[in-house]
Amino acid sequence: MIAVDWGTTALRGALLAADGTVLAEHAAPRGLLSVPPGGWGAAFEAEFGAWLAAHPGLVCLMAGMVGSRQGWAEAAYCRCPAGLADVAAQLCWVQPGRVAIVPGLCCEADGVPDVMRGEETQVFGALQALGLQVATLVLPGTHSKWVQVQGGRISHFSTHMTGECYALLRSQSILARMLPADDGAWVPEAFDAGVARAFDAGGLLHHLFSVRSLALFGRDDGPALASRLSGLLIGEELRAQALPAGAPVAVLGSPALAGRYQRALAQRGHPVTAVQADAGWMGLLAVARAAGLLAAPGPAEADALPAGTLRP
């Protein structure tokens, strides 16, 4: 099958064997913002037509902003709690029998809705990889997602605009004047200090000013200030979770950013499991199987998977 993660600014795709082996991958800077109205079908053929021609009859599942209101077609949100079967039952077919969009998820807390598109497939893939039915996961990014899983279903999640706030503060706030043009080398000790400070009394709005005051008194500068700011924001994100002491957390994300979350969680006493980058592909494969589009591998086939392959 073909698995596609089609976002706002870029797309990624993988050609998957029935056992989950990644046969080929493709990426392009052709996201939602660069596809003209009515041009989704042509864009899809331009990016993946060669795979379809070489492998007639393949089914393709897509996740991400391609299913938003501004995408190829709006795939209605699936309400939490939601598992593989729930998501598979709501596939949005844009080319019947050939190409479908996986719905995003929505949940609600205290009368306020929250949504995700694309991250759900990464979570399902991670659950398959780790063999978990109950878990807490974090997907760091521009808008980080904290996800709770019960009985193999996503029961609740919350979104935190950590990455976006970091970008705004370091480029458009008074703090930007104290920071270098680029982040420079990461300073772990300054990051750690920021994480610890986020848990002190006073609140984030107060702690943020310390980035300026420490610079004014010459106690931090340059990359150390950027690392401290990163630690403050990630620390605030962790503080908001109110995790039970020693609760394990799975981290899904790019190695550099995931590494910061792993370090912050370890500082707070939480065991961390890092999930490999192709979890989203395995999540889409699992959705396809739940929808009856692919047969599950038999025991002998599963045992023959290459070492390190996520087992669906």
Helices, strands, pairings?
Blueprint: E1 2-6, E2 11-16, E3 22-28, H1 40-54, E4 60-63, E5 78-79, H2 84-88, E6 92-95, E7 99-101, E8 105-109, E9 112-116, H3 119-130, E10 135-139, E11 144-150, E12 153-160, H4 162-172, H5 188-198, H6 204-216, H7 223-241, E13 249-252, H8 255-267, E14 272-275, H9 279-290, H10 299-303
Parallel strand pairs: 1-4, 4-7, 5-8, 10-13, 13-14
Antiparallel strand pairs: 1-2, 2-3, 6-7, 8-9, 10-11, 11-12
Helix pairs in contact: 3-9, 4-7, 5-7, 5-8, 6-7, 7-8
Summarize the structure in words.
The protein has 312 residues and is α/β, with parallel strands linked by helices. It folds into two domains: 187 residues, 2-Layer Sandwich (Nucleotidyltransferase, domain 5), CATH 3.30.420.300; 81 residues, no CATH class. It contains ten helices and 14 strands. Strand 10 and strand 11 form a beta hairpin.
Keyword list:
single chain, 312 residues, alpha/beta, Nucleotidyltransferase, domain 5, six-stranded mixed sheet, five-stranded mixed sheet, 37% helix, disordered C terminus
Largest sheet: 6 strands, mixed
Mean pLDDT: 93
Gap from first CA to last CA: 14 Å
Q: Beta-sheet strand percentage?
A: 15-25%
Adjacency order of strands in the biggest sheet: 3-2-1-4-7-6
Q: Helix fraction? A: 25-40%
The CATH topology of the largest domain turns out to be Nucleotidyltransferase, domain 5
Number of distinct beta strands: 14
What is the count of distinct domains? 2
- Runs with pLDDT <50, length 5+? 299-312
Topology order in helix (H) and strand (E) letters: EEEHEEHEEEEHEEEHHHHEHEHH
CATH superfamily of the largest domain: 2-keto-3-deoxy-galactonokinase, substrate binding domain
CATH architecture of the largest domain: 2-Layer Sandwich
Structural class: alpha/beta
Shape: globular
CATH class of the largest domain: Alpha Beta
Q: Radius of gyration, Cα only, in angstroms?
A: 21 Å
User: How large is the count of helical segments?
Assistant: 10
